[in-house]
Design goal:
CATH superfamily: P-loop containing nucleotide triphosphate hydrolases
InterPro entries: Bact_polysacc_biosynth/exp (IPR050445), P-loop_NTPase (IPR027417), Wzc-like_C (IPR005702)
GO molecular function: protein tyrosine kinase activity
Strand order of the largest sheet: 3-4-2-5-1-6-7
Shape: globular
Structural class: alpha/beta
Strand content: 15-25%
Number of helices: 8
CATH class: Alpha Beta
Keywords: ATP-binding, Nucleotide-binding
Distance between the termini: 26 Å
Helix content: 25-40%
CATH architecture: 3-Layer(aba) Sandwich
Order of helices and strands: EHEHHHEEHEHEHEH
Length: about 210
Amino acid sequence: MDTLQETKHIQSMLVTSTRTYTNNASIAADLAAMVAQSGKKTLLMDADLNRPVIHRVFELPNRVGLSDILQGQRSAEAIMHKLIGDNLHVITSGIMPTVTKDLIGTKEMSNLIKQLKQQYEKIFIHGPAFFYNEATLLAAQVDGVVLLINPNYAKSEATQAIVERFQKTGATIVGIVMRDQPRYQSNQSAFINRLLNYDKHNRIGS
């Protein structure tokens, strides 16, 4: 995992991958849980509306969630799940509307992130794989992006292309996770330590 860029206030982060998730794992969930355990008020949101996993990670109901908020049917407070001693709040994806809608790229999504930044010290968004348009839309709305690079995408040319794609949105790449590597878990923990130390140094969330 690369070093954290100390360029701006990193409060909201999109976590996206070079491929779609095929199991119940989520780096966003791992990072959010670790930060919440450190004592910070943390929000985890599942914004992968077509392939949601966060509700399965924490064994939560998914009858209502982000899709309902974005359609004006529920408030964020009404569908929030509270975990880890009330430090971790989770918004699941909810059910995707039967009629396809661009919910992620809406003003409602942008306003929701702004609202949540007033309430939480850290926000982690589990997003769709980087090649979906929704990932690019989300990258433009957050302070930073964490990329999950799988081994078959680890070549420098492919990695650079991914980074450039997101940088064009104005997003800051705050970390790159190399998945399925021997030191994967220790690297993830090291990233959290750098993130929290960066917060302390810059008085973020204090």
